[in-house]
Design brief:
The protein is α+β, with helices and mostly antiparallel strands. About 35% of the residues lie in helices and about 15% in strands. It has a single domain, classed as Ribbon (Pemi-like Protein 1, Chain: D).
């Protein structure tokens, strides 16, 4: 079931996302959104951040903390070099 609400465009072409919609989609201050134009429609989608994805996103592989740390050190060395 689609939810349809009317919103008004304010100064500087801003819109306010109704509380009910924001809560349903997990949108809060600072949430990044992807805006897509489809014909004469605008589609907004929340862009999940790394923390959200780590907690709720689809899991593709298992990584140990040691393995993660090792990879992190290797990647950092590419940029800062070895001392």
């Amino acid at each position: 079931m689609a939810l349809k609400l009317e919103v008004r465009v304010g100064k500087r072409r801003t819109i306010v996302i109704p509380k009910e919609v924001a809560e349903k989609l997990g949108i809060s201050e600072g949430t990044r959104l992807e805006l897509e134009v489809r014909g004469e429609s605008i589609v907004l989608r929340p862009i999940p951040d790394a923390v959200y994805l780590s907690l709720y996103g689809k899991k593709y592989a298992r990584v140990s903390l040691e393995g993660l740390e090792e990879t992190s050190v290797e990647e950092q060395e590419k940029y800062i070099g070895r001392d």
